[in-house]
Amino acid sequence: MAEEGSRSRNPAGHAGLLDNLLALTSALAGFFQNRWALVALDSKAALAQLVALAACLVAAIMLFAFGYVFLIVSAIAGVAHLARVSWLWIALGAAGLHFVGALIFLFVARDRVTRPLFRATASELKKDREWLKELGKTTQPKS
Fold it and tell me: How confident is the model at residue 88, as a pLDDT?
């Protein structure tokens, strides 16, 4: 007889408030767990990108330093050239190669910086926003 009373209060067989709250909590937990996993995946990719960027910057700084040293040596060698010593062009060529190498690493680093981080997360959040906009359009009553 107790069952008949509960059936009359809930004739459609819908879940109660507590069941709905538990389902909502479970759905939200699943949603945030999936998003957290996506952020973790993107974080690993971002770390690899930042390590590559740091390596390129360190290499560029080192090559620039070597270029500067060869430039100074070339200036010294220029004075020696005035005294008929001819290793100036070799030192200038080495300095030029180091500067070109530094520029290449700087261009690679710039390319790494211009790539957006967290691509998959941003894409997924954009899809979620679009879905929410569409959901809002379909649930609004027509006047």
Answer: 66
